[in-house]
Amino acid sequence: MKQNKKNKQIVLIVVAHPDDEVLGCGGTIAKYAKKGNKVYCLFLGGGKASRYSDKKTAIAEKKQALLSRETQEAAKILGISEIFFNNFPDQKYDTVPFLNLVKSIEKIKETIKPDIIYTHHCGDLNLDHQITFKAVLTACRPLKGETVKEIYSFEVPSSTEWGIPKRKNYFIPNVFVDVSDTFNKKIEALKTYKSEIRKYPHPRSPRGLEIIARQRGMMAGKELAEAFELVREIE
């Protein structure tokens, strides 16, 4: 998380589902925003609400409206400047033409021209997360004129650590961000997702996230930290 004091950065978070942004890098988002940077978030899917075959049913509309409100509220807490929604089907990204996913990311990139992107880890148990990672890399090919200079992958509790622990896809963090001053924002934002939050000992719980943050903090000599893998950096 490098930053010149005089130059503000444009950061794009690309996630598969609502609440992934909070779980993966909520404290880091709040830290960027606190320093005056512009942070945007692209949700490729609408979450569980998109599982309903008939999007016009009352129950689907109600659930989607609730999740949308939760997402907006979480974004406000974290200091996200703007959020973008697509509606790719939850847990079915493998049924979507890959090019459609890539183009949806490219469209936002062309609009905001981000310097940095944060997204899922390639080894997550969740297939939507895996495909999102691949789509981000494809959309950010290091060609002439590409604005993205840094790409980081984050861990999503109950997805990253539940993947098959093979060397090629295991999450091995090498970048740590001190979120001691913004972790409270992460938990506050998580609590807005009433339809997604879980009770301890589930890792997607306030206590679970604190334990993870303390563990990552100890790895970096900090009280609380979020961990990332540096995927690409171009100086």
SSE blueprint and pairings:
Layout: E1 10-15, H1 20-34, E2 38-45, H2 58-78, E3 82-88, H3 98-112, E4 116-120, H4 127-139, E5 150-154, E6 175-178, H5 183-192, H6 206-220, E7 225-233
Parallel strand pairs: 1-2, 1-4, 2-3, 4-5
Antiparallel strand pairs: 5-7, 6-7
Structure description:
By secondary structure, the chain is an alpha/beta fold. It has one domain: LmbE-like (Rossmann fold, 3-Layer(aba) Sandwich), CATH 3.40.50.10320. Helices cover 38% and strands 19% of the residues. It contains six helices and seven strands, in the order βαβαβαβαββααβ. The protein has helices at 20-34, 58-78, 98-112, 127-139, 183-192, 206-220; strands at residues 10-15, 38-45, 82-88, 116-120, 150-154, 175-178, 225-233. A seven-stranded mixed beta sheet has the order 3-2-1-4-5-7-6, sandwiched between helices. Helix 2 links the parallel strand 2 and strand 3. Helix 2 (58-78) runs antiparallel to helix 5 and helix 3 (98-112) packs across helix 4. The longest helix is centred in the N-terminal third of the chain and has 21 residues, at 58-78. The model has no long low-confidence stretch (mean pLDDT 92).
Main attributes of the structure:
single chain; 235 residues; alpha/beta; Rossmann fold; seven-stranded mixed sheet; 38% helix; globular
Strand order, sheet with most strands: 3-2-1-4-5-7-6
Record field, number of beta strands: 7
Order of helices and strands: EHEHEHEHEEHHE
CATH superfamily: LmbE-like
How far do the termini sit from each other? 13 Å
Helix content: 25-40%
* Oligomeric organization of the protein chains: single chain
Rg over alpha carbons: 17 Å
Main sheet attributes: strand count, strand direction, barrel closure: 7 strands, mixed
Could you say what the CATH topology is called?
A: Rossmann fold
